[in-house]
Write a structure and sequence with these properties.
The protein is of the alpha/beta class and 306 residues long. The chain is 36% helix and 17% strand. Helix 9 (252-265) packs parallel to helix 10. The chain starts with 5 loop residues before the first strand and ends in a 9-residue tail after the last helix. One of its GO terms (molecular function) is arginase activity.
Length: 306
């Protein structure tokens, strides 16, 4: 186990890659839900770096299969630079999104840091969606459905080369958990690229404990564990404040077990929290649940056994 770390919160207030407005308010909702105080209660040194800035959302239709490509590139570039700077300074970055297209900037920065330091990388993608669309496969052109594909080198040049190496990651480093909504063409592509997906049927059959044991298998002290937490991973009954709700997600207890098992490894080195949309929420409930789960990632446990 590593010692409790120095954490930097980085707000990225944009819904540039989403199909619904409002994720731009996510960072503030997490702050209102007292994320900083919650982390400090677990002995974590927290610095809130405030919000990054980038172009406004023009809310236009897709061009050549992508919506708002130049704006998406701009936001991901500033995200990459901010996350990379924190890692270089020996701090753990927590990206407060924003929509999930920002995973491109965030994960490419983490991958770059791992190349610098000779570390292996494992990415846990907690999500209802595989996010493995391309301009040819996407029904919408929304880039928040494409980050994993872009990170694996399938996407527009400007996006796939942000971290300085194409592809930024190998599909072998990714474990997707909670998946339950995948487009038909995207499903074929996921199989072709051999992504490791623990979908909801797998979790139903095998349980969250077995799922997480496999997802976390073979980690060691030379592995950087990155967690990309899309709030739509959760069942909408506990987390209604997202633009892309899909029924049948992990329950409150399953989600906590997932987070506690990640915490137990001691290897988490960076975190994204994305797709929180306060405009669709009920009294900031989804932000509060998210903060609660993030506490479990930092060692809060109901464990009463000796």
């Amino acid at each position: 186990m590593t010692t409790l770390r120095s954490v930097s919160l980085i707000g990225v207030p944009t819904d540039i890659g989403a199909g619904e407005r409002g994720a731009s308010m996510g960072p503030e909702a997490l702050r209102v839900a007292d994320l900083t105080k919650a982390l400090r209660s677990h002995g974590v040194d927290v610095v809130d770096r405030g919000n990054l800035s980038g172009p406004p959302n023009p809310w236009l239709p897709p061009v050549d299969g992508y919506r708002h490509l130049s704006e998406v590139v701009a936001w991901n570039q500033v995200t990459h630079d901010a996350i990379y700077a924190e890692l270089k300074a020996g701090r753990m970055p927590i990206m407060l999104g924003g929509d999930h297209c920002l995973g491109i900037g965030s994960v490419s920065a983490v991958a770059r840091h791992c190349r610098d330091t000779g570390k292996k990388l494992r990415i846990l993608w907690l999500d209802a969606h595989a996010d493995f669309n391309t301009s040819k496969l996407t029904p919408s052109g929304n880039v928040h459905g494409m980050p994993v594909a872009c990170l694996c080198g399938f996407g527009p040049q400007e996006l796939i080369e942000i971290g300085g190496q194409v592809p930024a990651i190998s599909p072998k480093w990714v474990r997707q958990i909670g998946i339950r909504s995948v487009d038909a063409g995207e499903k074929r592509f996921v199989h072709e690229q051999d992504l490791e997906v623990f979908d909801m049927r797998y979790i139903d059959e095998m349980g969250m404990r077995h799922t997480m044991e496999l997802a976390l298998a073979t980690l060691d002290a030379n592995t950087h564990l990155h967690v990309s937490f899309d709030v739509d991973f959760l069942d909408p009954s506990i987390a209604p404040g997202v633009g892309t709700t899909v029924p049948g997600g992990p329950t409150y207890r399953e989600a906590h077990l997932c987070m506690e098992m990640i915490a137990n490894t001691g290897y988490m080195g960076s975190l994204d929290i994305v797709e929180l949309n306060p405009a669709l929420d009920l009294q900031n409930r989804t932000a509060k649940v998210s903060v609660d789960l993030i506490e479990s990632l930092f060692g809060k446990s109901t464990l009463m056994r000796k």
